[in-house]
Amino acid sequence: MKPVLSPTSGWIARRRYAILFYALLATIAVGPLLEALDIGRLAMEMLLTASLVAAVFPIGALHKRRTMLVIVALALLLRGLSAYLDSATISAVGAILWGAVALMAVFGAIRYSMSSARVDLEQLYAALSAYLLIGVCWGVVYVAVVKLYPGALLLGGQPLPRGLGMGDAIYFSFVTLATLGYGDFTPATPVMRGLSVFEAIIGQLYLAIMVARLVSLRVATVSSE
Questions:
Q1: Cα–Cα distance between 208 and 95 in angstroms, integer?
Q2: pLDDT digits (tens, 9 = 90+) for 173-225
């Protein structure tokens, strides 16, 4: 017997990918601006937390969702400890857990966006959320890599004077994902170059495959009407 959802819970369940999309959009657009303020890093962490929780919510099975939330809590705890203890290793482990949860959410969003013969707004939000989630996830990974290898990323050909903040990491991630190539940030180690190339390839393949799939579904829907 399926549980009966309250009107509020039902509304959230029907718009779970729209909520995820706007949470990610706020993280990308507002987060870097907030980093210029004294509370910027805390605000950025809060936005990342909201995005990650929103990414977990669409997972259908309750036990899987609870497991993912436990991993999210552990990842956030490790991120907090790494900032307090200034530990690159703890930061890397936290980033791995963060990335694992984000990867699960990406697969779930992609599967949902392709799960029906008809394309509706929620499926479009799912497809867009997966793309944004890839960029945010890679930004978290870049921060961890720079903490482990401080010279992995250069700014104007010089080492980063204050390390890599999440705002700059997300900026570099989406510049790479979209293959814009502004050239201000430069990967300087094999690991960072490999991650950057991999992200650029994923970004191009994702857009090509997802757009082709959604267009074909839309054409099939129109033809059947």
A1: 28
A2: 999 999 888 888 999 999 999 999 999 999 999 888 887 777 777 666 666 66
- CA dist 7 and 38 (Å) reads 39
Amino acid at 224: S
Highest mean pLDDT among 3-12, 136-145, 204-213: 136-145
Strand spans (E) along 104-217: 153-155, 158-159, 185-187
Cα 42–chain centre separation: 18
For residues 180 and 199, the answer to whether their CB atoms sit within 8 Å is: no
Q: 38-57: buried (b, 16+ CB within 10 Å) or exposed (e) per residue?
A: eebbebbbebbbbbbbbbbb
Alpha helices in 118-189 (DSSP H): 121-148, 166-177
* CA dihedral over 135, 136, 142, 145, signed as positive or negative: negative
Task: State the Cα–Cα distance between residues 25 and 216, nearest whole angstrom.
Answer: 27
Contact 119/218 with Cβ under 8 angstroms? yes
Domains of the chain: 7-224 (1.10.287.70)
